[in-house]
Specification:
Oligomer: single chain
Number of strands: 0
Number of helices: 4
Radius of gyration: 18 Å
Order of helices and strands: HHHH
Length: about 70
């Protein structure tokens, strides 16, 4: 998530005031690994949710997000 925030901050700040070459250098290095790293970390946490009891998973994940989806 921090890499996504870094990406959006780079776009907005660079368009407004410009950024240093060092910032743009790190941005270009981290861009190809941003999404694969996100899915890797998400997969590490998904195993615990999938292997656990069904009731807490349904209540904590499915119903929680369904409620906010229907609310908004």
């Amino acid at each position: 998530i921090l890499l996504v925030v870094f990406h959006h901050a780079q776009d907005g700040v660079d368009a407004t005031i410009g950024l240093s070459d060092t910032f743009n250098y790190y941005y270009k290095i981290l861009s190809p690994i941003r999404m694969p790293l996100f899915f890797l970390v998400a997969g590490l946490f998904a195993a615990r949710a999938i292997n656990g009891p069904l009731r807490p998973f349904l209540d904590g994940k499915i119903l929680h997000f369904a409620y906010f989806y229907l609310l908004w």
